[in-house]
């Protein structure tokens, strides 16, 4: 019974910590469990870590960059015998396969590319006949793009192969570890989205 009381006190302490940090109660038990896991995990790592704060930030940034490079290498193996050659080209096509059309700059912003780089991706897809462009009915200065039948067929053929890339990116992580990673990375992504708008 004493252990149960101790655990209950710990849960209440973490609940108070959640409310203090977020300024609200948890939306559901899943949000509270994920947040609590983050706190316990962070406390455990802090006890075991020999890194200085600056080195920890540098290591985190380095590892995040390396994940992007691993992703590009895996994609290169999948795409080398196809009409496209980069993850950006595949992602543009995939997004267009899910919508009727996009304005060019809208599609570029979704992928967080600089204008000239995104335009080059679109030009390559246009030259290969994988997308087509047309005038925007609401803004005559803007152009919209849509996927062609050839583009749609290419995406359909690549989806199963790209799924193997996504699985590789998760390595040998368990489902629980992947959910924790998603939780942490979403929080990080939200921070950078806000920073980018300032």
Describe the structure.
- Among the domains are: 1-46; 82-157, Winged helix-like DNA-binding domain superfamily/Winged helix DNA-binding domain (Arc Repressor Mutant, subunit A).
- The chain is built from eight helices and three strands, in the order ααααβααββαα.
- The protein has helices at residues 2-22, 29-48, 53-79, 87-97, 104-110, 115-127, 149-169, 175-197, and strands at residues 102-103, 131-135, 143-147.
- It has a three-stranded antiparallel β-sheet.
- Strand 2 and strand 3 form a beta hairpin.
- Helix 5 (104-110) crosses helix 6.
- The longest helix is centred in the middle third of the chain and has 27 residues, at 53-79.
- The model has no long low-confidence stretch (mean pLDDT 87).
- Spell the H/E element sequence: HHHHEHHEEHH
Helix content: over 70%
Show unreliable segments. Answer: none
Indicate the radius of gyration in whole angstroms: 22 Å
CATH class of one domain: Mainly Alpha
Major sheet size, sense and barrel closure: 3 strands, antiparallel
Offer a few descriptive terms.
198 residues; single chain; mainly alpha; elongated; 8 helices; three-stranded antiparallel beta sheet; Arc Repressor Mutant, subunit A
Give the helix/strand layout.
Layout lengths: L1 H21 L6 H20 L4 H27 L7 H11 L4 E2 H7 L4 H13 L3 E5 L7 E5 L1 H21 L5 H23 L1
Antiparallel strand pairs: 1-3, 2-3
Helix pairs in contact: 3-7, 4-6, 5-6
How would you summarize this macromolecular structure in one to three sentences?
The protein has 8 helices and 3 strands. The protein has 198 residues and is mainly alpha-helical. Among the domains are: 1-46; 82-157, Winged helix-like DNA-binding domain superfamily/Winged helix DNA-binding domain (Arc Repressor Mutant, subunit A).
């Amino acid at each position: 019974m004493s252990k149960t009381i101790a655990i209950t006190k710990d849960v209440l302490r973490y609940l108070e910590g959640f409310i203090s940090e977020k300024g609200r109660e948890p939306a559901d038990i899943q949000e509270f469990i994920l947040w609590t896991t983050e706190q316990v995990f962070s406390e455990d790592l802090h006890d075991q870590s020999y890194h200085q704060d600056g080195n920890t930030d540098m290591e985190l940034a380095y590892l995040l960059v390396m994940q992007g490079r691993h992703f590009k290498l895996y994609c290169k193996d999948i795409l080398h015998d196809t009409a496209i050659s980069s993850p950006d080209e595949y992602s543009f096509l995939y997004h267009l396969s899910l919508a009727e059309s996009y304005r060019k700059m809208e599609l570029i912003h979704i992928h967080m590319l600089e204008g000239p780089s995104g335009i080059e991706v679109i030009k390559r897809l246009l030259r290969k006949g994988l997308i087509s462009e047309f005038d925007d009915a609401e803004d005559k200065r803007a152009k919209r793009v849509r996927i062609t039948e050839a583009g749609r067929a290419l995406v359909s053929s690549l989806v199963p192969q790209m799924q193997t890339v996504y699985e590789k990116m998760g390595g040998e992580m368990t489902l629980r570890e992947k959910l924790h990673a998603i939780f942490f990375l979403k929080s990080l992504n939200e921070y950078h989205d806000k920073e980018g708008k300032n």
